[in-house]
Write a structure and sequence with these properties.
By secondary structure, the protein is α/β, with parallel strands linked by helices. It is 28% helix and 30% strand.
Length: 446
């Protein structure tokens, strides 16, 4: 029988990511085939999961994706894994609003029937920590709590009090405890954690992570407490290769949902990966271009000076071939990108505006888009996510707006998505699993 579980917490900042990565590292070091997942739309955590496990990190999301899609992603990914580890997002019950759990870690755990491991930051708490655990355990009858992992425990005596409090209150037992460690941490920047591509890991980093988990958690007890029946559906995606989609994937462009890439291949597309920041040109044999998000503003000089990439985009546009850019990819299609120091770098210039970094440009949240009448996406709807610190200067009125946009609470936002000739772009990262028809239109797939 396989093992799978969700690592959740009462709030962000409790230590979920570090503890998840250390458990993943320990399992891999033991020779266990472990498949990582992330609750919600975060790209960077999945990249760290992939680095630690050697397996592609998968996103699961109960707001962006339908029930059947989440189930399929989970079961397909588990086909060749022995253990599945799902890292939660924010607090366990935090979803799109205060009335529903949709979009939350709890809703995903309930949907997939996975046991929950609750990570609790016990700093400055003793017996009161059990009251906190009790609140979470008893808040919903739909969840199965398999145990608690304490974080930032100060001493053996502190741990003894915490464990006694759980036992006295007849709550799920402790599976281990992490001490107060500042030497194993992943730095952050404006869109969250620093990506693996930009981190200078010491050779011992993964070993240190694995050792940390082995010293802190009873791994065998954890696995014994989380057996699950997984209906494995190994859905092997084989592209026909009849339609080639160029896709940059490097330190500037790394924000892609694995399911989005599978959707391209399911529709017959072949992915042509290349690295613009390494000087690689846009593949001329491609039929379409998909520019994902990332950190183009931190790599603007290399991107701007790569004429094989920038001129390639312009040539594609002149030929009328589909180009789709989202967030950082969209910024690349503008005339200029201003880096954090204020220096401007020429880009492809397909959209008559400039992108720059600004605190006032911060946007975050789920988005539902509907194609506006008269646009190439008229009548089509899809869901996605927006998270960026950049903003564009005013887009001229004669540039077509493609989408009406609402947030997860159904509140209308500004129209988004722009179209000039064969180029389409915008800040919203779409989850094509919510509607593959949108993908067909954006990239010209049939």
């Amino acid at each position: 029988m396989k093992s799978a579980f969700v690592i959740a917490a009462p709030s962000s900042g409790s230590g979920k990511t570090t503890i998840t990565l250390s458990i993943l590292a320990a399992l891999r070091k033991r020779g266990v085939r472990v498949q990582p997942f992330k609750t919600g739309p975060d790209y960077i955590d999945t990249a760290h999961h992939a680095l630690v496990t050697g397996m592609k990190g998968e996103n699961l999301d109960t707001w962006m994706l339908p029930k059947e899609m989440n189930e399929a992603i989970f079961s397909n990914a588990m086909a060749h894994a022995e253990v599945g580890v799902v890292e939660g997002v924010m607090g366990l019950f935090d979803g799109v609003d205060g009335k529903r759990d949709v979009g939350s870690t709890s809703s995903l755990a309930a949907l997939l029937g996975l046991p929950v491991i609750l990570v609790v930051d016990a700093r400055s708490m003793a017996r009161s920590a059990a009251a906190l655990v009790s609140g979470f355990v008893n808040f919903s009858s739909e969840l199965n709590f398999a145990g608690v992992i304490w974080n930032r425990v100060g001493s053996p005596t502190h741990l003894k009090i915490l464990d006694e409090a759980l036992e006295a209150a007849n709550l799920p037992h402790s599976l281990g405890a992490f001490g107060r460690r500042d030497d194993i941490a992943i730095p952050s920047r404006h869109l969250g954690l620093v990506t693996p591509e930009d981190m200078q890991f010491k050779d011992s980093f993964l070993t240190d992570l694995a050792l940390l988990a082995e010293e802190s958690v009873d791994i065998d007890k954890l696995l014994d407490a989380t057996p699950v029946e997984v209906t494995v559906k190994s859905d092997q995606v084989k592209s026909t290769g009849n339609y080639k989609v160029a896709l940059p994937r490097d330190r500037a462009y790394s924000f892609y949902y694995e399911e989005n890439l599978r959707q391209i291949m399911k529709l017959g597309g072949e992915l042509l990966l290349f690295a613009p920041t390494e000087g690689e040109a846009l593949p001329t044999e491609a039929d379409a271009v998909y520019l994902g998000g990332g950190y183009p503003e931190l790599n603007a000089e290399k991107i701007s000076e790569n004429k094989g990439f920038i001129e390639g985009l312009r040539n594609f546009h002149r030929l009328g071939k589909p180009i789709y850019g989202e967030c950082g990819g969209f910024m690349t299609l503008c005339e200029e990108v201003e880096d954090p120091s204020g220096r401007r770098w020429p880009m492809a210039g397909l959209f008559p505006t400039r992108a720059r970094m600004t605190e006032r440009g911060f946007r975050l949240g789920y988005r539902e888009v509907e194609g506006k009448p008269g646009s190439s996406l008229a009548g089509l709807s899809a869901r996605g996510h927006e998270f960026h610190y950049s903003r564009i200067e005013k887009m001229p009125d004669d540039v077509k707006r493609l989408f009406k946009v609402k947030n997860a609470r159904g509140e209308s936002l500004e129209d988004e998505g722009y179209n000039v000739g064969s180029a389409t772009g915008g800040y919203i990262h779409l989850a094509f699993g919510s509607n593959p028809e949108a993908l067909k239109q954006l990239l010209g797939l049939r």
